Amino acid sequence: MSRRFSFAVVVAALAVSGFAQKPARTVLAVGAHAGDMELTCGALLAREHARGDRVVLVHLTLGERGNPKVTAQAYAAQKKREAVAAAAILGAEVIFGPYKDGELPNDQAARQYVAAIIRRVQPTLIITHWKNSMHPDHAATNAIVRDAILLAAIVPPAWRGVHAVWYAENWEDPEGFTPYIYVDVSGAMRQWREAVMKYEFVRGGISPFAYLDYYGALATVRGAEAHKGQAEAFDIEPYGKRRVFDDVP
């Protein structure tokens, strides 16, 4: 059985299991670097926490090599403080991975590490990076998470309650990404802004990329497309883009 087919079969089976059991919702967002998930789906995380759901952030690396003005060690400590502060505003628990920025290993050990988190956290929805990216850590995260879902479901103590996997919209992951799911986050944008501003790289002065302006404007664009104020958009696996009608609507 191919890896792609295995993943498709497992997620389809988990969808049936998850809806049948109706577990309390838990959202697990897995990012390559601290800040990735907060920027791309932080408003959704804040919204879900406000609705009573459990929210967990995983940063596989801190992204500690992203500031040329300080050492990686110093920036790692800074970003860890920033990540904790941002998570508190979003109402999220936070887990820090053991990996180095730019060196995220796309290997079995990383899959087992994430699978162990999935078993412990027991998410119903997982959000992570899209599969195509200009950043190798992002692409590796996607592959690791996809296979970790399979491992978590078949290796005891198994967790079979994942009923959806969404891929967040990131400016570094544009190839082949198509917005498919739109979530109204209008009421959480102020909280999102407060959270991401905890990161110095978002406030400006480290990177020339205008993160706050980009993702704020993107939420407005996706909101216009969805006839909402602001929205965050996600893609899913192609096999999930299926609607069945008994008659022409």
Secondary structure elements and pairings:
Layout: H1 3-21, E1 26-33, H2 36-50, E2 54-61, H3 72-90, E3 93-96, H4 108-121, E4 125-129, H5 136-154, E5 164-168, E6 181-184, H6 189-196, H7 200-203, H8 211-225, E7 231-235
Parallel strand pairs: 1-2, 1-4, 2-3, 4-5
Antiparallel strand pairs: 5-7, 6-7
Helix pairs in contact: 1-5, 2-3, 2-6, 3-6, 4-5
Task: List descriptors.
alpha/beta, 7-stranded mixed sheet, 249 residues
Overview of the molecule:
The protein is an alpha/beta fold and 249 residues long. The protein has one domain: Rossmann fold, CATH 3.40.50.10320. It has eight helices and seven strands; from the N terminus they run H-E-H-E-H-E-H-E-H-E-E-H-H-H-E. A seven-stranded mixed sheet has the order 3-2-1-4-5-7-6, with helices on both faces. The termini are far apart.
